[in-house]
Amino acid sequence: MAADDPIDTAILLAAGEGQRLRSVAPIKPLCVVGGQPLLDHAITGLAEAGLKRAIIVLGYEAEPIVAHLAARSWPLEIETVSVVDYRRPNGVSVLAARHRLQGANALLAMGDHLVEPDLYRLMAAREAVTGIQLAVDRRLDNPFVDLVDVTRVKTQAGRIVAIGKLLPEFDCFDTGVFAIGELFFQALDRLASPSVTEGVQALIPLELASTIECERRDWIDVDDDAALQKAERWLARPSALGMPDRSHLPAPSTPIEHFSRRWN
How many Cβ atoms sit within 10 Å of the Cβ of residue 257? Predict the structure, then answer.
């Protein structure tokens, strides 16, 4: 696949320890919300958006997550890679998936976010991505956003001019959904122990960090028990939120069809 083709592969970050959700879910990607683990919501949403392949980056409690993935079939190809130290920032997880892309662009998503598939679809349609394009939410009164924890973004003429959790001036939120190109990996690679945010910050002076409006496409970061309760309410209102209601569907029990056991 050429770097300027529409995106068909997602990198899904699921390596972290999830300490703030530990009281209700010892393994965060397997935390059940709306009748399904967070990871399952992400994978099925990516497939519904038309993605063909997901590279899932694991770290903390990787083995039970791999077992979970291998126990059922999925509507897209699944691969896993692992990080040596899950306590390092999430940019290290992004770099762990780099060699699987062979220079192609990718969609980058967070394994602890619930996202309307149409937002994934919007970002997968990006072409000619050199640095990063970030889906941003300008609804500063979005009731599903935790203002204390969300990554804040300041923009100008469609470009990111500042990004960070403690940003005093901002005009939108980071949704955790990106289209990324090779220059983003290069920016991360130049940093000792990078976060995704630090990689974006490195691209700002080069004018390689732009934004795409999520408009009314919804998302929620499920990072603690309070967010989990919000997420249950979020999924309970599919017609109002534009989310398809999959709660009545049983999890497939057929043998796995698309799962790569490459794990390093």
Answer: 13
Q: All domains of the chain, ordered by start, with CATH?
A: 9-234 (3.90.550.10)
Nearest to 25 by CA among 235, 252, 225: 225
The full length of the chain comes to 264
Residue 172 has pLDDT above 70, yes or no: yes
pTM of the model: 0.89
Q: For 219-227, what is the mean pLDDT?
A: 93
The residues, ordered by sequence, that sit 6+ positions from 69 with a Cβ below 8 Å of its Cβ are 39, 56, 78, 80, 256, 259
Alpha-carbon span 258 to 232, nearest angstrom: 29
What's the token pair of residue 166?
A: 């403690």
**If you ran DSSP here, which 8-state letter would residue 19 be given?**
G
Single out the residue of 103, 104, 83 nearest to residue 92, CA to CA. Answer: 83
Comparing 140 with 239, which gets the higher pLDDT? 140
Residue that has been written with the tokens 């003429």 in this structure: 157
Q: Quick one: which of 41, 223, 31 has its CA closest to 119?
A: 41
Query: Quick one: DSSP state of residue 72?
Result: S
Strands (E), the chain: 9-14, 32-33, 36-37, 53-58, 77-82, 106-110, 113-115, 132-137, 152-156, 159-164, 172-180, 209-213, 219-221
